[in-house]
């Protein structure tokens, strides 16, 4: 089992320094469970983003998850082995895992998001679900009190991903920005494809950042419900991720040729602020 969890830890260590640092503060059993859940999310996400044949591979993954959900113990895979152990230890639900897969299918369909409602539905499926997956591990018995806050935090983080990765997404011919928001600020997909960074772009970007920050605030209001062992890790993850928005601002809103990130030094400063608040 140790090797299975190590394989999951290797995935999060490679792909998300922010989450890895934040959740490293958890007790070992809870920490391992987070690694296993992250590995599930990362694997299905990579199928869509990195695979040469994402439709076929996602279908295969769905079938594997169906076998897993039916109780089959797929011991040949360290990732399913670790997740099986998580489901044995905690009161997990299958629904958010299924919704996550549906969110990845949205990416495959090349959807255009016309309204903010459609965009937030996508954010729920690919990120709000992660909050729900983690609740039984991070706050057992408090899932209902924390449900809305956990979803809000996931949605806020996905907003942040989208606002940070506009240029990278354009390289994949993906536009997540809702058409109604583009139009509202006098910006267009044609300007986006031309990497035009002007006042309209900044106004549009900031309007979405304000929505993200409102979701962060909603999540922060429920933070006190988390038990002491997980409150700092969850709060840290939220603060680190929210800091990406300020990093984009510090880059002059240049999301086309620079990738915004929060440095290790900045994270240490943020952690020090949490410990004194």
From TrEMBL:
Associated pathway: Carotenoid biosynthesis
Record protein name field: Phytoene/squalene synthase family protein
Family annotation (InterPro entries): Isoprenoid_synthase_dom_sf, Squ/phyt_synthse, Squalene/phytoene_synthase_CS, Trans_IPPS_bact-type, Trans_IPPS_HH
Keyword Protein transport: no
GO molecular function: geranylgeranyl diphosphate synthase activity; squalene synthase [NAD(P)H] activity
GO biological process terms on file: carotenoid biosynthetic process
Record bears the keyword Metal-binding: no
Keywords: Carotenoid biosynthesis, Transferase
SUPFAM superfamilies linked to this entry: Terpenoid synthases
Signal peptide residues on this chain, from the entry's feature table: none
Domain of life of the organism encoding this protein: Bacteria
CDD domains the UniProt entry points to: Trans_IPPS_HH (cd00683)
Pfam family, one: SQS_PSY
UniProt-listed PANTHER family: BIFUNCTIONAL LYCOPENE CYCLASE/PHYTOENE SYNTHASE (PTHR31480)
């Amino acid at each position: 089992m140790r090797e299975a969890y190590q394989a999951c830890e290797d995935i999060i260590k490679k792909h998300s320094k922010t989450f890895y640092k934040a959740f490293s503060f958890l007790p070992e059993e809870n920490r391992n469970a987070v690694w296993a859940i992250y590995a599930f999310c990362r694997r299905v996400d990579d199928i869509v983003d990195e695979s040469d044949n994402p439709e076929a591979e996602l279908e295969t993954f769905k079938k594997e998850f169906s076998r897993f959900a039916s109780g089959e113990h797929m011991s040949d895979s360290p990732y399913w082995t670790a997740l099986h152990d998580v489901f044995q230890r905690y009161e997990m639900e299958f629904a958010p895992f299924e919704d996550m897969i549906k969110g990845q299918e949205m990416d495959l369909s090349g959807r255009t998001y016309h309204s903010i409602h459609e965009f937030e539905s996508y954010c729920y499926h690919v990120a709000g679900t992660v909050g729900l997956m983690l609740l039984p591990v991070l706050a057992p018995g408090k899932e209902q009190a924390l449900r809305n806050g956990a979803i809000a935090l996931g949605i806020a983080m996905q907003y942040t991903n989208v606002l940070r990765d506009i240029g990278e997404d354009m390289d994949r011919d993906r536009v997540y920005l809702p058409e109604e928001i583009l139009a509202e600020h006098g910006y267009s997909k044609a300007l986006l494809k031309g990497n035009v960074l002007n006042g309209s772009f900044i106004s549009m970007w900031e309007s979405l950042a304000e929505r993200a920050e409102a979701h962060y605030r909603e999540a922060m209001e429920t933070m006190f419900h988390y038990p002491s062992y997980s409150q700092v890790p969850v709060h840290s993850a939220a603060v680190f991720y929210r800091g990406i928005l300020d990093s984009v601002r510090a880059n002059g809103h240049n999301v086309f040729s620079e990738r915004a990130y929060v440095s290790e030094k900045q994270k240490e400063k943020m952690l020090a602020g949490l410990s004194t608040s």
